[in-house]
Every structure is written in C-alpha cells, then in structure tokens.
Amino acid sequence: MAVVLSMTWPGVTPQQYDTVRQLVDWEQDQPEGAVLHVAWFDGDALHVTDVWNAQSDFERFFAGRLAPAVKEAGIIGEPESTFAPLHRRFVASGVSGGG
C-alpha cells in the first residue's frame, strides 16, 4: 500500500540537505519504491513530503543510503515523521523532474 511520509527535521540547513542529496544522488540513482519527493524550509527546519510504494521501502532506503549521508553531512537529532496511507494522487500534465 502506498504511503505518504510527512517529515519535519529541526536544525537542518539547506546546505546540509544539498550535501545529503549530492551524496545519496537519489535523483539519478532512484531508490526502490520512491514515487515523489518534495522538500522546503520554514524557519530553522527542513520539511519533506514523500510518497512511497510502501513504508518498508523508505525504511530500507533510510537505513542503507540516507542515514550514512545524514551523518556525513553533520545533521544531528531526529526528524518528526509520520506515515499515512495514500488516498489519492494527482500529478498535473506536463510536470516532471526536479526543480
């Protein structure tokens, strides 16, 4: 069952996020089960909304690829994360890629 991950990680900077993104390279070496990733900053926190085919897909990605890069980027603390079943997904025509 597809899930939506909502994450808030206080104290993460845009520079740290970009370091992790470069180390993991998830845009080119896409993790199994990843459907959508959106990230933004508000105040002193990173916010992420992801869609995954299953929660276990994210957990495997986090343990195997993301956690080591988070450590290397000097990110401390733990994110506040919740998973919920995906009810509906809409992607506007013509939308693709990162930005």
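Second entry:
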Amino acid sequence: MPIIKILPHAEYCPNGAEIEAPAGTSVCEALLDNGINIEHACDMSCACTTCHVIVKEGFNSLNEAEEEEEDLLDRAWGLQPQSRLSCQAILARENLTVEIPKYSINHAKENH
C-alpha cells in the first residue's frame, strides 16, 4: 500500500504524519480516513478548492487532472505547478508527500 507523508500543518496535522491507503483511493479520502480533517466543503464533488494540496513527491504517479479540476485550481490559494484537488487525486502504487496549504479560499469553515 502506498504511504502518504503529510508535512506539518498548524491546524490539520501539527506534527506531520505518515499514513497508508490503498491504491485507487483519493488523497482526500485517505486523509479523512486517518483523522486528518482537511476541508472538503463540496463533499468531494470537484466543485470547490478547499481540499487543495501541493504534491511535493510522487506527483506523476497520480491520475491526470481533468479540465474541471484544472479550472478550479486556478482559483486556489497558493497555487503551485504540483497542486491538485485532493478529492480528485487518485493514489497509484507510489508513495506521496503532500503539503496542505496554510490558507484556503473558504472563509466559513465547517465545525468551528
């Protein structure tokens, strides 16, 4: 099973983490299943950018981004060439390292 290394994020994962998830799982699902409560305001339907991550290692192992995802990413805070919406980024067999950006464009967070 691939391992996802999550770099430290003050709110979601202060100490960083390493989690395992089966190939075919979205990065967002893997994080949520392992207690890393990344925002996902559209309930993983590819309609917002709150689950934006920057893939530091393993980017090319992910499925290719669809046009809908790329259009949304243009609005994401801190967009990088290796940015993906974690709800659309599907794990293959390679390990990943991801960074959750410090900010999102979602001003009204759930559960706060």
